[in-house]
Amino acid sequence: MKTLSRIGLGALLAAVSMSAAMAQSSPRPSDPSAPKTRAEVKADLAEWRAAGYDPLDWINYPHNAQRAARIVAQRHAQQTDGTVTQ
Q1: pTM, whole model, 2 decimals?
Q2: What are the extents of the domains in the chain?
Q3: What is d(CA 28, CA 86) in angstroms, rounded to the nearest whole number?
Q4: How far is CA 38 from CA 12, 42, 43, 44, in A?
Q5: Where does the secretion signal sit in this chain (predicted)?
Q6: d(CA 7, CA 15)
């Protein structure tokens, strides 16, 4: 019986660890305060750069960042709503 209970315990432990691993690898929760992954940060930067933001442009810093933020927000609104805001 000890061998059978050890096998059962091992199977239960393996199932729990697999479910925990699957929960961690699932897509980000909708919690905006959750930390972003490196890939998400890189994707955000690429999106901002496509909207015209240049992180090396220190002279026009607040204005170019605000303009790019508005463009990115409009694009996100278009994707979620399906409407065009201009």
Answers
A1: 0.55
A2: 38-86
A3: 30
A4: 33, 6, 9, 10
A5: 1-23
A6: 12
